Amino acid sequence: MRESQLIGLTLIPVCFSGMLFNWAVVVAIWRDKSMRSSFLVLTLVKTFCDGCYMIIYSFYITPMIVFVKHTKFWVAFFAIYSFLVYAIVTYGFQCRYIYDSEYWTFTNASTFPVCQFFSMYVDFAKNSIFVLICVTVDVITLIRVMKMRRFLRKQKRAEVYSKKDADFMKQTCGQGLCYILDYMWFVAFPESSNPYYSFFSSLFCYAAVAAMTGLLTILYNSDVKKSILRGKKVPMPAIHSSATAVFPVVR
Questions:
Q1: DSSP class of 108
Q2: What superfamily does domain 3-243 belong to in CATH?
């Protein structure tokens, strides 16, 4: 087995743990009808997308790297799919991504300026805007939660709400920090001739971020954690219902 294949094996534990964390959160929120606040709906949509992302990594990207003999089959299958969905971009401008076995990462095979611009700036700008919107929504939700807590400060449940505020802060800040570090790495070190760096700063890093966001949700969201561990419906405090106007955004 070649060195690049051995390095590709490091994706397996990250991808499968990411699938476990994210889909556990999706199932926990989906089966409990009382967990339908704006923030938990936002969490549901985001973890669902991350879970699908982990499935693609587990059953397409990782096998394509590890099992070189099956690469032609996977490439042919997804080339047909890509033609149906992205016919103009893929075949009109020849903007094709290939797996570079020399640097152990996916790269743009075309030197066409439009492809280069889209690869480096448009895709990055799209993800950056989504992250900025998610952070804005989280901050607005947190402000509304803190305002509601002021009215409940003199009640017995004030301590419970205070703890939920802290957990909410830990979850959103932890997930935001993961995204920020990921994009800082992308901007600061866009290219490298070292294959180890190329692999771990792109494929491995993207999978690890998606897995960490699911893990942080389980660790710091008490409602989701109780639903997963006990398998029972967890009543949703009224404090979160104040943020129903917030619309969920997916990264």
A1: E
A2: Rhodopsin 7-helix transmembrane proteins (1.20.1070.10)
